[in-house]
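Example record used in the benchmark description.
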Amino acid sequence: MEFLHEGSPKAVISENHAEELLDSLLDQLRRRGPLRRVLILPPDITRLHSWAGFLTCRLHEKLHANATVAILPTIGTHAPMTDAEIARMFPGIPRDFFHVHDWRRGIVPLGEVPASLIREVSEGKLDFPVRVEVDRLLVEEKWDAILSVGQLVPHEVIGIANHNKNVFVGAGGSDLINRSHWLGAVYGIERIMGREDTPVRAVLNYASEHLARHLPLVYLLTVRARADDGKLVTRGLYAGDDLACFRRGAALCRQVNLDRLERAPRKVVVYLDPLEYKSTWLGNKAVYRTRMAIADGGELIVLAPGVREFGEDATIDRLIRAYGYRGTPHTLEQVRRAPELAQNLSAAAHLIHGSSEGRFTITYCPGHLSRAEIEGVGFGYGDLSAMRERYSPHRLQDGWNTMPDGEEVFYVSNPALGLWGTVDRLA
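Model output (structure tokens):
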């Protein structure tokens, strides 16, 4: 059932009003039974702008005096949050409330998604079952409520991120992470991004309905967008224990987070905040979220001062370095030939997602990787100092810009906040 559904393309939900909505949510949950033990699942620092930090802090404040509260950041395959990142995103919550998810070893099985469903949703391209696992903290302790907090936003693997993705991927195990990412890549990234119903969403919905009904999951979802003055605001807040809150919020997300362009820019510049983006595993949102906007033969320039590695996980980092972002045919062949890549399909999917397939060039300007490292994975290399001087994030405005010499540039200050594409590609 739905507990909250408030939002519209012009709404601005203030912190004070959000507090009132949270009180309403908790009151409704308490009518079902006491909230003595509550687990909160927020995203990590890579979703700093999701408002999940604020909501988690308020939930902790309202609950911890009378309940046992635990917090498990849903890092998926990302590196664990540092103490500094926790303090930045969740100010005021003591460190000992937080637990660390281990997607390779700290999980327990819930069951299996049958191969028949994978065949159906992949249009016959794939034929395997998917093992569904979640962090043992969700299952091995008794919770009165598990509150999954996060943002609905366009996503390259599932179409629109969050809801049950936050549980089965963010707090999930390697088999589902690998195979769901591969399913999305094989189906086609540009057929998925910004869409509500996708093959990967169907797999996770099956897991919710058939394998996790015994877990007291409640989803708390935001929709955020930039206001006319450029400031990030909350347009919607939704909560529920089924798909209804996702569908209502996803409709608003499609209204406010898809930037449809009348013409395709030949040059796109994307800035990656060093606090959020330390790897191409995360930073390639610059590629995913703008690829449907860039003109054939155009160029994507990625200003990446914080990028120091390729994968957040040591194995994935090594695989990216070994196989590179060299397009779908090359990656498919390597999966057939290299057992280690075949056993890490999320890495293989990432290699496909991060390639332009030769349609446009990608120039990476990293703060902590060498020319040899960048060119070794198939990207073009750009000197960060020189590129940042020409395409200064302090001077460029989000959207279209004309440089002093007449060059036209489309600028994106944070690729995590939306999806850009031409009208025909985002139909």
